[in-house]
Design goal:
The chain has 208 residues and is α+β, with helices and mostly antiparallel strands. 27% of the residues lie in helices and 34% in strands. The protein has six helices and eight strands; from the N terminus they run βββααβααααββββ. The strands form two sheets. It has a four-stranded antiparallel sheet. It has a four-stranded antiparallel sheet with strand order 5-6-7-8, with helices on one face. It is globular and about 60 Å long.
């Protein structure tokens, strides 16, 4: 099966034997195309996805990609844009070490069971410093909870992170998934920086 690989210079390529070629260059749109489908560097992905990349000219050999087809990231809805803006504000606060501000992004029900000090301790257990971040996608879906009519939408944000641990070492975390809920018209974080789980208002913690 095809595999997305990252080079030492930060660029990407695909390993897959097709038409007497074992490695393929992939452009930025191709990398984003894969990320929006949940595939990260080191991941294998279905051959049919590779064929779609090839058909659209996003994987190629040589120096010039074939202009066979066009693909562009889908347009964001108003709800998606609002979610992306909230996620941007959250990661800006974390990057600027404004933990108190970041705490206010937690779902009200989560904050009711988690103090600011507990949030700080949990955050420090995950990483010492957030050194960079890049939001890859933000998607919202209708969400109806009989017991919680305040929640109208659920959302998923895919983000790449670079963190520094207590030893000073840097680590890249690709395609981390944040789960958000829109509560009374405002987006709040339910779970973050880990594999997203289905929306559950019984959750009382945030995974950073």
């Amino acid at each position: 099966m095809p595999r997305l690989e990252e080079r030492s210079d930060g660029l990407y390529y695909v390993r897959h034997y097709y038409r007497q070629h074992a490695t393929w260059q992939i452009d930025d749109n191709g990398v984003l195309f894969l990320r929006e489908r949940g595939f990260c560097p080191g991941d294998m992905f279905p051959t049919k996805v590779f064929m779609e990349l090839w058909t659209r000219g996003m994987v190629y050999t040589g120096t010039v990609p074939a202009q066979i087809g066009q693909w562009r990231p889908r347009a964001l809805s108003r709800d998606d844009l609002a979610l992306r803006e909230r996620a941007t504000a959250l990661y800006t606060a974390l990057f600027q070490h404004k933990t108190e501000d970041a705490y206010t992004f937690l779902l009200p029900r989560v904050r009711a069971s988690k103090t600011l000090d507990q949030f700080k301790a949990q955050l420090s257990d995950r990483f010492a410093v957030l050194t960079s971040w890049l939001i890859r996608s933000a998607d919202s879906l209708p969400c109806r909870c009989e017991n919680t009519p305040e929640v109208t939408l659920s959302g998923f944000v895919i983000v790449d992170l670079e963190i520094q641990d207590e030893s000073g070492a840097h680590h890249k975390l690709y395609a981390q998934q944040d789960l958000w809920l829109r509560w009374d018209g405002m987006w709040y974080l339910l779970e973050g920086c880990g594999p997203a789980k289905p929306p559950s208002l019984a959750a009382d913690r945030v995974h950073f």
